[in-house]
Structure to design on (170 residues):
């Protein structure tokens, strides 16, 4: 499948995530995963960025942190929600979100088996590296679930899917 492009409407999908609450400040509390449907993004401006894996070097140090650091800039440009997506399970995504201090600013979504990303043409087979099927590294700006920007990384590193590139397109 060809990758999603500007002007396309995203396919419907449902993700699992653990909503942030003050109880999660206790490292022994896990929280319970709930569903988030892409239908909840209708009528909203959403920034969604995807990483191959929580706690992996580039994702952990170069991709996610700038989104949190520039959170106020995204909000000033009218972004209703920011979400990070990976093929990890919702508990790992919650653990990563807690470690990074995302709290209620960025939603950490589980795209189990990269099933939704596959519908976009943005899954990646990293089995040879011991990681299985993962989400590609990409970013989307959505308005009413229509793609207004898509940045897909074709090489290692973070450029077109990074916070600065996305901010420049808002």
């Amino acid at each position: 499948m060809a990758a999603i492009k500007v002007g396309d409407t995203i396919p419907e999908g449902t993700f699992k995530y653990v909503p942030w609450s003050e109880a999660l400040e206790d490292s022994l509390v896990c929280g319970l995963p709930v569903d988030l449907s892409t239908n909840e993004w209708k009528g909203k401006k959403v920034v969604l960025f995807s990483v191959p894996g929580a706690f992996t070097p580039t994702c952990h140090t170069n991709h996610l942190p700038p989104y949190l650091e520039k959170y106020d800039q995204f909000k000033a440009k009218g972004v209703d929600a920011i979400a990070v997506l990976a093929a990890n399970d919702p508990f790992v995504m919650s653990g990563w979100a807690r470690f990074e201090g995302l709290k209620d600013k960025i939603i950490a979504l589980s795209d189990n088996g990269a099933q939704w990303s596959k519908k976009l043409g943005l899954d990646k087979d990293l089995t040879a590296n011991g990681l299985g099927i993962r989400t590609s590294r990409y970013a989307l700006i959505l308005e009413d679930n229509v793609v207004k920007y898509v940045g897909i990384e074709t090489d290692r590193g973070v450029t077109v899917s990074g916070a600065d590139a996305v901010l420049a397109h808002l």
